[in-house]
Amino acid sequence: MSILDIAEPDPYLVERRHMVESQLQDRGIHDERVLEAMLRIPRHEFVSEDYKSQAYADHPTPIGESQTISQPFIVAVSLQALGLQGGESVMEVGTGSGYQTALLAMLARAVYSIERHAALTQSAAATLDRLGFNNVKLVVGDGSHGLQEFAPYDAILVSAAAPGIPRSLFDQLAEDGRMVIPVGPQHSQELQLVHKRGGQPVINVIEGCRFVPLIGAEGY
Ligand code: SAH
Q1: Structurally, how many domains does the chain consist of?
Q2: 76, 38 Cβ separation under 8 angstroms
Q3: Which residue puts its alpha carbon closest to atom 17 of ligand 1?
Q4: Active-site residues: which are they?
Q5: Among 56, 196, 198, 204, which is disulfide-ready with 19 (CB 3.0 to 4.6 Å)?
Q6: Where residue 11 falls among pLDDT bands split at 50, 70, 90?
Q7: Domain that holds residue 201
């Protein structure tokens, strides 16, 4: 992973370390792999010049097309709930800036990420290429149907709010796989961890949250 291994001073490292300590560790994020990945991935590379100064702030930040990069804590909570060990095949719905995609790529074996805005995919692809990721496949389309082509997935991470758990996504989850998805009305949802056991969903609520809507056939 070229750029991530270059030992040149990173002016954002202090901010990133502070983000990890005060926004994540102090609030109960304990998965070492997640903390390490969030310390290494340069979040500022995924936002435009105008927003670089806010890249490590404790809130979502605009990324264009009326979309946002999720708050660091919500990203960390979601990743921790997936419990990735390194060998998984993962699907992400809502590539957005590609920030969370990069984290998934560091934490799992292969990542398939789908986004409905082609312009966001293009810019995410450029950033991920520049950082040297080669285990990511980006697709433009309606991710509320998932991506049957590469199913089943050991883990699925949905970054946009759905009215319920889309049937196609659950079907594409491997047995014993885990999905994290915000479910609920457009202005306030709960982040659910959906575990597939014996073909049935076992649902745990992680947090209250607020995401942009999942726009599509099996979304809003
Ligand atoms: N994980 C992203 C957050 C992006 S916000 C990041 O780290 O930057 C949620 C994204 O979901 C938006 O980019 C939005 O365009 C996308 N989205 C909404 N509905 C979608 C759908 N049906 N299929 C794919 N992407 C969708």
Answers
A1: 1
A2: yes
A3: 94
A4: 70
A5: 56
A6: confident
A7: 9-209
The CB density around residue 86, as the number of other CB atoms within 10 Å, is 9
* Cα–Cα dist 206/30, whole Å: 15
> What does residue 192 show for φ and ψ, rounded to 5 degrees?
-105, 140
In a domain, 2, yes or no: no
Residues with CB under 6 A from ligand 1: 63, 67-70, 93-94, 96-97, 99-100, 114-117, 120, 142-144, 159-160, 212, 214-216, 219
Closest atom of ligand 1 to 94 CA is 11
Q: Is the entire prediction scored with pTM above 0.90?
A: yes
Q: Tell me the per-residue pLDDT of 39-55, one tens digit each, with 9 for 90 and over.
A: 999 999 999 999 999 99
- Give yes or no for a contact between 148 and 219, defined as CB atoms under 8 angstroms apart: no
Is residue 119 included in any domain, yes or no? yes
Mean pLDDT calculated for residue range 168-185: 98
Query: What are the backbone angles phi and psi of residue 86, rounded to the nearest 5°?
Result: 130, -20
Residue type, 161: A
Whether the CB-CB separation of 130 and 106 falls below 8 Å is answered with no
33 in any annotated domain: yes
155 belongs to a structural domain? yes
pLDDT in tens, 188-213: 999 999 999 999 999 999 999 999 99
- Structure-token match 């750029």, residue found: 3
CATH of the domain at 148: 3.40.50.150
